[in-house]
Structures are given as C-alpha cells and as structure tokens.
Amino acid sequence: MKIIDVFRSKVIVFIIQIFILSLVLISFNYTSPINFDVNVSPPQERIIQTIANYVLFRDFSGLIFIYSIWISISFIPIIVYNSFKRAYSMNLLTFFFPNFFVYTFLSKYSPNYYKSNFLFHIIPTIFIGLTIVGVSLGGSFILKKLRKTKIETQIEDLHIIMNKIKSKCPNCGTEFNSTPIYCYKCNLNIMMKNEDTIENEK
Question: Are 84 and 107 part of one and the same domain?
C-alpha cells in the first residue's frame, strides 16, 4: 500500500482531526463540567468528561468556541480528499463519533443532566453537523475549481512549449514536433539550412 493511500485512509484522517481538536481544547484549558447522578469510577468519569469536552458547551461563548474548532478541522478532509462525498462523509463520521458516545454515556450515568440539557445541546449539535456538511461541499467545490484552473494553466503552458519547438522543413514542408538535424523525407540538413538563413539575414 502506498504512503498516500495510508494517509488518505479514514482512520488516519480521524486521528489527525481528533488530535488537533484535543490539542486546541488542552491549550485553552476548555472543559464542560458534567453533573453525574450515579456513582462513576474515576477512570470512567475522566473518559466521559474528555469526550464531553469535544461536543458540549457551558454557554454561548463555549458554543462559538466548539463551533469554530469543528469548522476548522472539517477543512482537513477537504484538502486530503479530492471528492466532496468523501470529505463530508469523513467529517460527519468524526463529528458523529464523540456525539454518539457522549449522549449514550449521559443517558446512562447522568440521566437528570441529560434530560434537563438535552434540547440545549442537541439543537446546536444538529446545526453544527449541517454546517459541517455545507462547509465540506462548498470547500470541496472551491478547491476542485482551483485545482482544475491550475491543471488547465499547466496544459496551456505545455501547448505553448510544444508550439515553440515545432518546426518545418524549408525544402519539402514536412512538419516536426521538434527541431531535427535532418529531414527524414528529403534528407535536407535543416540545422545547417537554418544557420545559413540566419547568416544571410545578418
């Protein structure tokens, strides 16, 4: 398997997105405290709290913060994949994963918090998910256009170069895609003929 194929695999992209998300949350010391209604072991509590930090928020500023990070990391699949379908499916997979476990854990270990805050969290979550899809589609479309423009420019440059190196036999009119020394049809020394022409022009 090629390195680029490994890099483009969903597992690697998922790890990169979650790693960047975690790094930003740790850098800003962001937490969204949860009130546990049942006894939970310290390791379980840490795991649930860590995953909750990816998707939950305390107030409007927390919502904007989480919203901004998710939008930012959604550009990674757009850049990696040259396909809007793969980009938005990857982004939805990454976004769905922590949300699924957070809401599952909350319903089990913090039912009171889950019931009282469900609408407060789920509506913005759906909105962020839809926004991520929109960003994935729009970003992929723009990037594809830019790449297409670049390829078209390169093709045009190649055509210009090809036209520059084309030549014609001054004797029989045979066209070449290069500048040969001899014409294969009439055996004229084209190089010498061109040199003579240049000398005469001087």
Answer: yes
Residue environment code for 163-187, b if the CB has 16+ CB neighbours within 10 A, otherwise e: eeeebebeeeebeeeeeeeebeeee
**Tally of CA atoms within 13 A in the half-sphere of 134 that contains its CB:** 7
Distance CA(49)–CA(56), nearest Å, equals 10
- What residue numbers bound the domain in which 172 lies? 166-201
Same structural domain, 126 and 194 = no
pLDDT at 166: 72
Instruction: Mark whether 45 and 136 lie in a shared domain.
Output: yes
For 91, the token pair is 């982004």
Go through the chain and tell me how many residues it has. 202
Does position 165 have pLDDT exceeding 50, yes or no? yes
Residue 97, Cβ neighbours under 10 Å: how many?
Answer: 16
Residue by residue, DSSP assigns 82-101 as: S-HHHHHHHHHHHHHHHHHH
**64 and 122 housed in the same domain:** yes
More confident residue, 155 or 122: 122
pTM of the model: 0.66
How does DSSP classify residue 177?
S
Write the DSSP string, 23-91. Answer: HHHHHTT-------SS---HHHHHHHHHHHHHH--SSHHHHHHHHHHHHHHTHHHHHH-S-HHHHHHHH
